[in-house]
């Protein structure tokens, strides 16, 4: 399903989502299509990992089709993702149909450090979690 960066070996590399588990036992199983995220938070973590690894196919597959942008290009130069911190979750559990995950993702572009603070909305679509959209608390906007 998704392509993985050659520099990451899922069997031995810690998952970029910050779980301290091997990629293959954590988000790698979602990116490979072997499993589907049971919660909105698990999908959030796997999508962060997909951004780190450049797994555009996975990002598209887990984005609500009504909200998925035509171009997912991160920019030039692309960001170098540094870490993810989940701040809060609302609903988004195995028995829910909607959920929210608030997070901060740190990254660098051109040697400058940045942070993305977002409240992401998730919904179940045909039994699977998908990313719908998000708001940016510090900027007051949506994407």
Automatic annotation (TrEMBL):
User: According to the lineage, what is the superkingdom?
Assistant: Bacteria
Q: Which InterPro entries match?
A: NTF2-like_dom_sf, SEC_C_motif, YchJ-like, YchJ-like_M
Fetch the SUPFAM superfamilies from UniProt: NTF2-like (SSF54427)
A Pfam family annotated for this UniProt entry = SEC-C
Which Gene3D superfamilies does the record match to this protein?
Answer: 3.10.450.50
The family line of this record is: Belongs to the UPF0225 family.
Domain YchJ-like middle NTF2-like, by residue range, is 39-134
Protein name, entry field: UPF0225 protein HF203_08465
Q: Which HAMAP family match?
A: UPF0225
């Amino acid at each position: 399903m998704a392509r993985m960066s050659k520099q990451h070996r899922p069997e031995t590399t810690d998952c970029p989502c910050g779980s301290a588990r091997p990629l293959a036992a954590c988000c790698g199983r979602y990116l490979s299509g072997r499993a589907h995220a049971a919660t909105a938070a698990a999908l959030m973590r796997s999508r962060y990992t997909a951004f780190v690894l450049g797994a555009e196919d996975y990002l598209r597959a887990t984005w609500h089709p009504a909200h998925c942008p035509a171009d997912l290009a991160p920019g030039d130069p692309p960001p170098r993702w540094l870490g993810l911190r989940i701040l809060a979750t609302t609903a988004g559990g195995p028995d829910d149909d909607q959920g929210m995950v608030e997070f901060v993702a740190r990254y660098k572009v051109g040697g400058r450090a940045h942070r993305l603070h977002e409240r992401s909305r998730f919904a179940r679509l045909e039994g699977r979690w998908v990313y719908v959209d998000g708001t940016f608390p510090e900027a007051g906007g949506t994407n």
